[in-house]
Amino acid sequence: MTAHAQPRRRALVVGGSTGIGRGVADAWAEAGLDVTVLSRSTPTGPGADRLRWTATDLTDAEQVAGSLALATAGPLHAVCYSAVHYGDRRALFRDCAEAEWRRQIDVNLHGLWLTLSRTVPALRRTDTPGVFLGISSEVVYNAGPGRSGYAASKAAGAALLDSLAQEESADAPGAEALRVVQALPAGMVDTPGIRRRRPDGFDYSDYMRPAGFAPLARELAATAGAGLHGAHLVVDGDGAWYPVGERLPVSQSRRIPSGAGS
Questions:
Q1: pLDDT digits (tens, 9 = 90+) for 205-220
Q2: Predicted local distance difference test score (pLDDT) of residue 2
Q3: Which residues contact 94 (CB under 8 A, 6 or more apart)?
Q4: What letter does residue 144 receive in the DSSP assignment?
Q5: Which CATH number is 10-243 given?
Q6: CA angle at residue 62 from 110 to 160, to 5 degrees?
Q7: Could you give the CA distance from residue 41 to residue 53 in angstroms, rounded to a whole number?
Q8: Is residue 38 helix, strand or coil?
Q9: 130 alpha carbon, distance to own chain's centre
Q10: Strand 241-243 versus strand 178-185 pairing type
Q11: In the predicted model, what is the mean pLDDT of the chain?
């Protein structure tokens, strides 16, 4: 009898065309997973040919529903939510428009909720525990002036994932079917989104690179998050990670004059 090849494990990265999400998507593809990316822009550059892509704008509810339905048609082994809307610039609360707040909520929080609602059942349909990786931020712990909407929406997203992790605790029925992990960069990360907010000639030499998240992504792919369920991890520039409880991430906040950008 001819042995049938095992189907490739499937992964989904929401917001995976650039930035930290792309670092995770590339690492999972290198680990042999069949990776689908949902994002507005097409993944480009080295490794893009290994990624499936579905154009998805997280502010378009109908498009999001369709994209997630396709992505969850079969079991998923790993999911990462990395989509984020920082805002056009840092600005004091009194200078922020309602439209900006709504977009931050749509992308940073509601998009996460939609992704969880569609992918958790797919993560539970695997023969090994599925893992959900949420990309967090130091602003969850530090807040800070000029980032009220970003801080509020990211903190709410972290609480949403914490609540899910507690529902999936060791004494919950079927707890081994799903593991939830949150991770955040120790410092600023060199991404296209950040570069749009910086002046020409800015020095990025001390910024982290998205590939710094590759070691953690590979670990999650190999172990399905064993021993890391419910953890908040800080990833440093060398790719090492430590629990946020060991030391809080450094605040990236600064004083912002009224009407000034960042």
A1: 888 999 999 999 999 9
A2: 47
A3: 258
A4: -
A5: 3.40.50.720
A6: 15
A7: 9
A8: strand
A9: 16
A10: unpaired
A11: 90
